[in-house]
Known about the structure:
It is built from 20 helices and ten strands. By secondary structure, the protein is α/β, with parallel strands linked by helices. It is elongated, with a radius of gyration of 36 Å.
Amino acid sequence: MLTFFRAYPRQTLIMLLALLFAGFAQGIGLSALLPLLNIAVRNDTANTDEIPAPQNEYELLLNELLNGVGINPGIGTMLAIIVIAGTLKNLLLLVAKKQVGYTAAHVATDLRLKMLRAILSSRWEYFISQPIGRIANSLATEVQRSSQAFVNGSLMITFATQTLIYGSVAVALSWKATLVCLITGLLIVAAANSLVRMSRRAGRKQTSLLTSLAARLTDTLQSVKPLKAMARENRVNAVLAAETSRLNRALQRQVLSTAVLAAVQEELLTIAIAAGMFIALVQFEMPFTTVLVLVVVLGRMLRQFSKVQREYQKLVIGESAFWSLQSTIDQALETREKPGAGKTPSLKDGIRLDAIHFTYAEHRVLDGLTLEIPAGSLTTLVGPSGAGKTTLIDLITGLLQPRSGTILIDDTPVSELDIKAWRQMIGYVPQETQLLHDTVLHNVTLDDPGLCDADAERALKDAGAWEFVAALPEGMDSIVGERGEKLSGGQRQRIMIARALAHRPKLLILDEATSALDPDSEAAIRQTIQQLRGKLTLLAISHQAALIDAADRVYRLENGRAIMANDVLLHAVGSD
């Protein structure tokens, strides 16, 4: 709660002030209750205008205060004070609760944005180590549980404030009875504390299981087609069902502990109030009206005290989600990408990699690699799987940093460039056709406000996709389906190329972009690439003859180094 309060000081101040003044208003209404009851009991029903003398110090003090401000302490006056005080209290509580609700919405939004920014600004090596399901779970479930925990904590403070007000009025009536009541309340809280601990453990278990389940579910849904094709979805279903059952047991423990806590508190409160009335009337021989007010005030105090514990129980159920989310954000921030020196990039001459060394953990990938990519040319990288082709591309884009060596863009090291500006000059086409379940237009522009329909049309034409897109029932507004399943493989790949070309890049990277295509689609993509040659610099990873034969330069990566392939080698590399 302190973390939230520091993040939202203005909202917290408004909430606390509203609660404080609501408490004062409630105290005023309760204070008028005893004089009202005494007047009602002692007055002759036929003559309600006669004001009887106070019978105790508390009532005497209240009468003096009312007379001091010119208020006659009669039945009508006391009733009016109670009604006005209650109305004011309800209005102030409305302000406080509204502030809590608005702040909770801000909490959820801010946590999601903070999480997204942290993940997207983290280094690529950290990002690829995180299960997508865990990130999705953090953005959905953990954020929601965290904001709900904030609401529970705020309600806990609300009930605690009300408890203090009731306690203050009760002390003025009888500090002995209040002390006994307070001790009773503490005993009730202590007796039920084991249920709170059970809830905390159940909340932690939920956080762990939800993270695991979301990660496994995301992986399963991404590979559901081959699983169904091989009739193996039942095996995955068994694993998911087992984890879901474990989650269900954790939820059952949470429900049980919450229900038992409420039941135990209610029973103990009833016993405490009955015992308190007996002691006050028989042992302390207090006036009936005073005891009646004490029962109302102390009964409310104990009930609010119990509500404090119940809201605390709900808070500890959700707090593990907040700390898990915060841990993920902190880890991502620790691996934040370092911006370059801010030099404006250009690509007029070309790209040079000089004596590049790179390792993944203990595995050496590149060992003194050197090569050049002239501007305006088509350069193709070939080599066996694991030779470092994709790693080389990640180094050029700045997603990875070499352990040693230099990557130069027109004689300027990548480390000295404005990395964002450099990446904005790059168009990237991955091997997987990562289309969104949306329109062709959205898949090309990604809702970039700097791109319009004309830019999308131009990119689709450059990618050789305009003819089939224009023939679709709704043109660029046609839905492509989940992962583009309504389109053929070649069509999906052309839209991916259009996406990469939409913002007019200087460098187009094709990472195995034709590996899964049939010969006709591959030939069409090759023709598209041939038309782009000279307009921008092209860098391709491919084992297909189409991009090898069309290349100005072919480099074979092997044993961590790059060898420029000659005509004899070109026929051999196609079989890798």
